[in-house]
Amino acid sequence: MQSNKILAVLRHGEADFNFPSDFERQLSSKGKSQLIRLRELLKKSSLKPEKILSSAAVRTTQTTEIVAEIFDNVKVAFDRKIYEAEPGVIFESIAETESDVSTLLLVGHNPGISALVSAIADQGYLSMQPGMLVIIEVQVDDWKHLGIGTGIVREVLQ
């Protein structure tokens, strides 16, 4: 029997550019402010992820730290493969999520996460801006079954 899961996809906050490598880029002060505002919105929402799966880049780890502090008992995993990944690679990382996790928060980068959200919802392209969170209801029993057209966008927060 199919049950619904929630996949929340968050693009990292706005980042500065003056760093030796793209992987090391840190959040700008505007990016931190965006995420603090988003965190306040999330406090009032029903979103309660059991797991956060984040890219290991500096700006995504900072994003994860800012947002994760409001969630009790959330497991956090950092995956370097998500950095600059195509949707197929991100699907593979999500597929490794335990099937008993009903709500997963993914923190990543464009263009991969916009393409991922667009594929799952299969309703046209959604361009995610820095600090944007898209909540998708997915109709799968196991994260391994997540794919094109398996979800519906329920909410967009920014």
UniProtKB/TrEMBL annotation:
Q: Which InterPro entries match?
A: His_Pase_superF_clade-1, His_PPase_superfam, PG/BPGM_mutase_AS
Q: Which residues form a coiled coil?
A: none
SUPFAM superfamilies tied to this protein: Phosphoglycerate mutase-like
| Binding-site positions, substrate | 11-18, 59
Q: One GO molecular-function annotation for this sequence? A: catalytic activity
Spell out the protein name for this chain: Phosphohistidine phosphatase
Q: Which organism is it from?
A: Belliella pelovolcani
